[in-house]
From TrEMBL, chains A, B:
Keywords associated with the record: Transferase
Pfam families, sorted: ATP-grasp_5 (PF13549), CoA_binding_2 (PF13380), Succ_CoA_lig (PF13607)
Organism this protein belongs to: Kribbella antiqua
One Gene Ontology MF term: ATP binding
Gene3D superfamilies (UniProt xref): ATP-grasp fold, A domain, ATP-grasp fold, B domain, NAD(P)-binding Rossmann-like Domain, Succinyl-CoA synthetase domains
Annotated protein name in UniProt: Acetyltransferase
SUPFAM superfamilies membership: Glutathione synthetase ATP-binding domain-like (SSF56059), NAD(P)-binding Rossmann-fold domains (SSF51735), Succinyl-CoA synthetase domains (SSF52210)
Source organism, top-level taxon: Bacteria
Domain CoA-binding: 7-99
Length: 668, 668
């Protein structure tokens, strides 16, 4: 029970601050709500023609008022909500601005106090409202929002404006909405609350989530995980670039780390998108079709025109979507259906299409390596009846369709296909986004299904850790480190060189020195006692670590730290300044499964370096996963540790080896 | 004169192979052309009710036939074109497939022979045709293409399918088309020919160019440069990913290097886009508005809803678009117009909009640092009449608008704004793409206007070049190299060490060894004669280069090579394997201006490394530009040189220095 039934399925609605001046918010809201198919009370104590109070309205209507839509200025809002609560309302919508986002936290606090006192659920303030089209409930100050049709997509937007913009785009794309909510300042009801409601809402088949900031990351991630296990979630996270100051003016909240939020939401099962059109393409498709969980679903492409098919293929390859060569048997079936001059290996180019197009789609969908068929065709009503061709495909697996053409033709084909359960995009890009969403959702579900064992528990003492101590922790975690000797004296260092043989690395050993290289505290490739003596002289009279040199390879950075919003998170990146300048890092919350951790390197821009670049070593994903999981576990188990980082963790032909390690934390 | 008037403004049209069987191509094409507002002849020698030949049709109609639309199978097409040419046609469209793309080059050669013999211009084969909506000329086998309205955008697409898909998307976005062409196999008419036609076509105000492959790169680049100087060109290049085999099956041509094609087209003045929807957003906006050339135009953002404004701002910042803080004077004017609770520095958030919205837009547009205003608003007919608010803005500079809302409301607002010359997108992403296109076009125009002096001429002898000789070429080009001594003997090497002081680099000096490091041919950091002797011993009895060591810095790779399609091209990338794995390289054709060469590093993903990363050195763009231009000039002047590369070219606090150089070419 999310407790939002009063908001989304109210038995009666009151507009507090209703007005008969059409320019006033109270009038616009009353007009929007006029289509509502339940009791509606217009309340304004200063207008004798309207109800003087919610209590009076309840008496007159003889029906309970569950939802109060509050259209009074910020300073008066809390009292209005309290009045409604006393009259029995269990939910309120406060649209006005002028709260935390505008430098008036006291008004927002007053609302929070009312929520606390009466247990009423409150949406807003500072939002343009919400829609439940199936109930003709348009609690929005954009009355034309009533034109958005009912359907399977729920929209949960940080911003009222984005909620409306996305709902309208969904309608434009032929999809309908179950519930669409703009959270505004989220003084009470937040994304997590709405997600919990949607989990049990039978009308919702997929969720579009728009995130500007996150207050409680773990709670949000858990809700996304619960929902995505039952129905797909697609997330658009704002703030890739520096927009912080404007964002804060908007909702009064600091922007959350874009990268971390994305990493954690994806881990929780949300398909990520980069913009509102892609959001619509993705969630629309997922509201109609969901693939079975699979590690890497194969996509068959059937196109009636080669050029758009090429645009589609280029995008799919760029999104790391697998478009497998069709089996000989499939190619043979396709060859029987098509003239010999077309390409038939996948993509299948039908040439100018006609009757039998559906049979080609069916043949491709029947290939054992094809989990999803993507079909593109220009609408040519004279030569191809796409709806009836595809309607014969019941025995075939999931299929999504792209159509181009005049808006009339596209409208006809699209509604025909939607009725039969096919998602439809109106360009190769839209189709590619739909395909990517379906594939990504199936991959995330597969990853979620792969249960992981717990990472090993290792006691990490409180205190300060020098490199030798930090590496001892790694040793205990089962992470390989070079053979090393901590030396208090020059004599010990020379003995260590004898023991290890050359070449060795010699480094300052001091927990207070975090950036050894930058102060000249590291000497590499020392082979003889002369060089060692030189190096020790330069390092001064200090403790040193003498360590065997590792073979060359590809350097990674792996770490775990405490995120202020999401708690313990783990990071994987490539070493080197270029990777650093690109902020090329994958992030997840800890704990995480082996499957989840194994997926991290595949997000890196420079991932090609990890897969045998120029004959180099190939990363064993599961070996890296165990390192990542172990570091995450340290932060979960040891509250006094703030951060643990291996930089570099070198990928060699013999596997991974930690060349340097830093642990920071409280000294107890 | 491009010689395509017979194709796009024919005095009469004949369909050869016209049919009365509605499923046949000849019937579909006849139906498409039935709306044409000039003489139309249906020709089929086997149908007594149609004209027996083009010649007969000319006689019967008493009018010339300029265009023959050929709807016969591939083997019969050349004869049909010849027949039309003999009857006076100056242009032909051949739609059928079955030519080079399907393994029948002989049929395509036959067409080429007819073109050669008769001088007729031929579009196709293997294309769905073209449209000239203003003349109701729909030479397409998609009859509904007649629904695409007339307007300012010309579409030049490699593929007939993409031509149609893009034209339909333009119509859907409220834009119209002047000419829309699918080139197909381009046996005769290619993109360059159409571009030359469009340069003189008064109806065309912007060009959408879709490229799959390029036969003659220099010719195409020159045509794009001619057109873009007069009207904007937006280019979508296919083939970022591995799509070669399917692409070849499509038009029979090998895919051109995606990166090089993009670099050269941009240099020629084309705005680049990543997909067909972005193409529509960009070219639609540019067909209505063009900014004055500017190095880096500033954009003012006015939004009626903060959330969509934030999506827009995030995208603009991610596209390196400048959104400057408004001047104090502008902020003061805006403050007088808006309630105090909104953000007003840029973006300007109007809060719930109403009358006076236009004045805010006008105030922002009047800021001295704003060259373009981007406006976003949900359509709220009750509170905001966007069309009349923006219609008062005559004295204000360029403005583009994003609107969200129900399709009815959006349609009304969009057509009202289009009539008044405002480009309109229907989502924050569409608006961002429009803004980016306008800004990029202005930047490219500014760069084109910056005339560059010729690069210096340096004689490069034929032969093989060892590192010392290659660096002597660099010295002559004015590119800094380390002090060095080429040594034939160990004695000379020791003398060189004395002369240069330590530390020095010692390297094998042999024109036959291109990858010295990989075979252990490079020893760095040698300070004393003992180390030098060790190094020389390891290198064996060979010539060596003894060279002063350069200070640390950021390594670049700069080179020039001969591209099979575009001729001499220059490349700039970052050093290191990560940059290499990302293929993070900027490409241009040589010769190029200082302004053009200076823009290259700004395209690199890792460009942050060049601008004082972590307190490091800052790249002087013009210093790099002179290096790039000089290398390009070598390839232009010395036909025996195949490639010249500096790797690394190190950015230090003292500027750029070439640490290694390779020249390869013919030995005479």
């Amino acid at each position: 029970m999310s407790g939002l039934d009063g908001l989304f399925t109210p038995r009666g609605v009151a507009v507090i601050g209703a007005s008969r001046n059409p320019a006033k918010l109270g009038a616009v809201m009353a007009r929007s709500l006029s289509t509502y198919d339940g009791p509606l009370a217009l309340v304004n104590s200063r207008d004798p023609e309207l109800h003087g109070s919610v209590e009076e309205a309840v008496d007159v209507l003889g029906a309970p008022i569950d939802l109060a839509v509050v259209c009074v200025p910020a300073p008066a809002s809390a009292d209005a909500v309290a009045e409604a609560a006393k009259a029995g309302a269990t939910a309120a919508l406060v649209c006005a601005g002028g709260f935390a986002e505008a430098g008036h936290p006291e008004h927002q606090q007053a609302l929070a106090d009312v929520v606390e006192r009466y247990g009423i659920r409150l949406l807003g303030p500072n939002t343009s409202g919400f829609l439940v089209p199936s109930r003709k409930l348009t609690a929005s100050f954009v009355p034309s929002a009533a034109d958005v049709p009912a359907g399977g997509v729920a929209v949960v937007a940080a911003s009222g404006g984005v909620n409306h913009a996305v709902s309208f785009l969904l309608a434009e794309a032929g999809y309908g909405v179950s519930v669409a909510v703009g959270l505004g300042n989220a003084a009470d009801v937040d994304a997590t609350d709405v997600l919990d409601y949607l989990l049990d809402d039978p009308a919702t088949t997929a969720v579009a989530l728009h995130i500007e900031s996150v207050a409680d990351g773990s709670r949000l991630a858990a809700a996304v995980a619960r929902v995505s296990a039952a129905k797909p979630v697609v997330a658009l996270v704002v703030g890739r670039n520096d927009v912080g100051e404007f964002a804060q003016s908007h909702t009064g909240a600091l922007a959350t780390s874009w990268r971390t939020t994305r990493g954690v939401l994806r881990q929780a099962g949300a398909v990520l998108v980069d913009g509102e059109r892609q959001l619509v393409d993705a969630v629309g498709a997922l509201s109609m079709t969901r693939l079975a969980p699979a590690a890497d679903p194969g996509v068959g492409v059937v196109t009636a025109q080669a050029g758009p098919g090429l645009l589609l293929l280029d995008r799919l390859r760029g999104s790391e979507i697998r478009v497998p060569t069709l089996s000989d048997a499939t190619q043979q079936r396709v060859a029987e259906l098509l003239p010999p001059m077309t390409y038939q290996a996948n993509p299948v180019d039908t040439g100018r299409p006609g009757p039998g197009f559906g049979s080609v789609v069916k043949a491709v969908g029947g290939d054992s390596d094809v989990d999803l068929v993507a079909v593109y065709a220009l609408t040519e009503p004279d030569s191809l009846d796409l709806v009836s061709e595809l309607s014969q495909l019941e025995s075939v697996g999931p299929t999504v369709v792209g159509v181009g053409g005049s808006s009339v033709d596209v409208g006809v084909v699209r509604s025909g296909l939607h009725e039969r359960g096919f998602a439809v995009g109106t360009s190769p890009a839209a189709l590619a986004h739909a395909v990517r969403a379906l594939v990504e959702d199936a991959r995330l579900a597969h990853r979620r299904d792969a249960a992981g064992s717990a990472a090993p528990f290792v006691e990490v003492a409180a205190g300060r850790w020098d490199e030798d101590q930090a590496k001892s922790v790694l040793d205990a975690l089962g992470i390989r480190t070079p053979v090393r000797v901590a030396c208090d004296t020059a004599g010990e260092a020379h003995a260590a060189l004898d023991r290890l043989g050359g070449p060795v690395a010699v480094k300052i050993l001091d927990a207070a020195v975090l950036h050894k290289t930058e102060i000249g505290g590291v000497h590499l490739g020392i082979r003889g006692h002369g060089d060692l003596a030189d190096a020790l002289a330069k390092l001064g009279d200090r403790r040193v670590l003498v360590e065997a040199m590792a073979p060359s390879g590809v350097d990674l950075i792996v770490g775990a730290r405490r995120d202020p919003v999401f708690g313990p998170v783990v990071l994987v990146g490539l070493g080197g300044t270029t990777a650093e300048a690109l902020a090329d890092v994958a992030v997840r919350a800890a704990p995480l499964s082996v499957a989840e951790a194994s997926s991290m390197p595949d997000e890196l821009l420079g991932r090609a370096l990890l897969d045998g670049w120029r004959g180099g070593p190939v990363l064993d994903r599961s070996e890296l996963a165990e390192v990542v999981r172990a570091l995450g576990q340290v932060l979960l188990d040891a509250p006094h540790v703030d951060e643990i980082e291996i930089n570099p963790l070198r990928l060699t032909r013999d596997g991974l080896i930690a060349l340097d390690a830093v642990i920071t934390g409280k000294e107890k």
